[in-house]
């Protein structure tokens, strides 16, 4: 568990929005499971919604060779600061699923660890490949580490879970009920 993670400021700024649960708690838990060497230089994590700032309403960023509005992203990374758009993270999922701590922590972790991946790529491990691809690799690595430490008992049911849930998610994606993770916009 990282002591440096306790020094990272986790702030919440919402405009006309209230998250369905205390979103800062899983963020702090997720940060505690990131090795300290990767958190050096990360100053703050801001939890907000897509209507909260003028920058988010008006700005655009290039992501995977296309322009994406900041307000359409689920998370942003800029020079030691991570911004998570909580309303966008939970937009495509029924409120019923958000009752389960594992599920909501998992949804936040996908975006948070992706943005931490951008931080690692920028400050520690420079690679000359697509930024989004590298950030996704770090996301997967950090997420596997978190789940194996925090939810170790899931390793027993990981294979049946993958075999059961993946077809359901694919079916929902085909019906248009849930957007594909890879196609959800994320910004560098």
SSE-based structural type: alpha/beta
Overall helicity: 40-55%
Q: List the total number of helices.
A: 8
Distance between the amino and carboxyl termini: 27 Å
Unreliable spans: 181-188
Q: In total, how many beta strands?
A: 6
At CATH level 2, the architecture is 3-Layer(aba) Sandwich
Average pLDDT, all residues = 80
What is the CATH topology descriptor? Collagenase (Catalytic Domain)
Total domain modules = 1
Q: What strand order characterises the main sheet?
A: 1-2-6-5
CATH class: Alpha Beta
Radius of gyration: 16 Å
Largest beta sheet, briefly? Answer: 4 strands, mixed
SSE pattern: HEHHEHEEEEHHHH
Give the amount of beta strand, in percent: 5-15%
Jot down its keywords.
188 residues, four-stranded mixed sheet, Collagenase (Catalytic Domain), two-stranded antiparallel ribbon, 46% helix, alpha/beta
Can I get a quick summary?
The chain is α/β, with parallel strands linked by helices. The chain has helices at residues 4-7, 24-32, 36-39, 54-58, 86-89, 101-123, 131-150, 158-175; strands at 9-13, 44-48, 60-62, 67-69, 75-78, 81-85.
Structure notes:
A four-stranded mixed β-sheet has the order 1-2-6-5. It has a two-stranded antiparallel sheet with strand order 3-4. It has helices at 4-7, 24-32, 36-39, 54-58, 86-89, 101-123, 131-150, 158-175; strands at residues 9-13, 44-48, 60-62, 67-69, 75-78, 81-85. The chain has one domain: Collagenase (Catalytic Domain), CATH 3.40.390. It contains eight helices and six strands. With 188 residues, it is α/β, with parallel strands linked by helices. The chain starts with a helix and ends in a 13-residue tail after the last helix. Helices cover 46% and strands 13% of the residues.
């Amino acid at each position: 568990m990282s002591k440096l993670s306790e020094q990272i400021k986790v702030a919440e700024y919402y405009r006309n929005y209230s998250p369905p649960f205390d979103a800062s708690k899983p963020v702090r838990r997720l940060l505690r499971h990131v090795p300290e060497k990767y958190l050096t230089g990360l100053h703050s994590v801001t939890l907000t919604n897509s209507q909260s700032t003028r920058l988010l309403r008006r700005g655009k960023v290039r992501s995977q060779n296309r322009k994406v509005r900041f307000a359409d992203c689920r998370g942003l990374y800029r020079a030691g600061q991570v911004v998570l758009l909580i309303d966008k993270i939970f937009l495509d999922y029924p409120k019923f699923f958000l009752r389960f701590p594992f599920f909501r922590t998992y949804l936040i972790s996908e975006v948070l660890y992706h943005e931490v991946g951008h931080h690692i790529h920028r400050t520690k491990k420079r690679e000359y490949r697509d930024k989004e691809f590298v950030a996704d690799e770090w996301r997967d690595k950090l997420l596997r580490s978190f789940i194996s430490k925090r939810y170790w008992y899931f390793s027993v049911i990981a294979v049946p879970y993958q075999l059961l849930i993946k077809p359901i998610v694919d079916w929902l994606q085909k019906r248009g009920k849930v957007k594909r993770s890879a196609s959800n916009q994320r910004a560098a």
